[in-house]
Amino acid sequence: MKAIDLLISTAIEEGEFPGAVGYVEHKGKIIYHEAFGYASAYPQKRSMQKDMIFDVASITKIFTSTIILRLIAEKKLSLETKVSTFFPSLESVSTNCITVYHLLTHTSGFPAWYPFYTVPEAEDFLAPILKVKSFPDPGEKIEYSDLNFILLGKIIEFIEEAQLNEVVKEKLVVPLQLNTTCYLPDASLKDRIVPTEVGNQFEKELVKVRNLHYHGWREELIWGEVHDGNSHYAFRGVSGHAGIFSTVIDVAKLAKSYLISLKHEDTFLSYELAKNSIQRHVMGENEGRGLGWVVDFNGINGFGHTGFTGTSLWVVPEKELIMVLFTNRVHQPNPVNINLTRRRFYESVLKVIS
């Protein structure tokens, strides 16, 4: 595994991120689990530890999609269920045909992003979306959109009549023994949590270029609170698209539940649902989309997901291989794209085990 050590150490030296935790599980055995660099570079330096807790950002979407699959298994909804069943304001001509399937595959036609915290509290948070005169027909194209999973999170709450964080605990955390996975982490965990950005500088610029306004920005180091602006400001830290805090081991356990289901060895998810979720339902420029999952990323077979804060997961079911790389790439003044390093990490692991 020296090649992997070198890859991550070099990325840190070149300023891609201050620190990282790498994890590899092969055929049920942990073959790699190492920490590198710093969990925080300021206000004081703290060394990264293997059990550090990260804001996993959009990997939250996989927790959400897994619950949706379980609700489908319980026959509480289906892939064909119209989203307007839960959101009557979406019964217009252009949005009435959007289904749960379209949300899971990012083919709803909804825009990629909108700062919902700029919407007055008295209004329906969907109001600015409903002002759009027309949308692409559902299924017409992939547009990766947080709104798809914000809505899925709300659908879960409607069906289960409980807050999303409570449902995640009941349906995922407890049965899979995800011992450190949660929304809204307790203050007692702060020393184990990896901080992210100082304020929401990146998101503040996105709001500015859209000529929108918000006055409640955090200016301090974001530490123990979700980094994502919509999750924090609009949804109080609990949303289907972002908000979960977890470790590499817990995220690997979630991925492993799919591998076990694909071997017909568990009833957590049926084989049919697990298999369907990792199929390539639609294809984009460099990656396909399953039901929540990214599939066949830049020619690498398998399924996984990434998170804006620097997290990533990739699974190769044929090799019973789970690869997790968590970094704190936004914990620096000028964050950079780390997709090449993610890919090299996967490729290095595949080379080692082959």
From TrEMBL:
One short Pfam family name for this protein? Beta-lactamase
Q: Is Hydrolase a UniProt keyword of this protein? A: yes
Q: Which domain of life is it from?
A: Bacteria
A Gene Ontology molecular function term of the record: hydrolase activity
Q: Where is the Beta-lactamase-related domain?
A: 7-337
Give the keywords, sorted: Hydrolase
Question: What is this protein's name?
Answer: Class A beta-lactamase-related serine hydrolase
Q: What is the lineage of its organism?
A: Bacteria, Bacillati, Bacillota, Bacilli, Bacillales
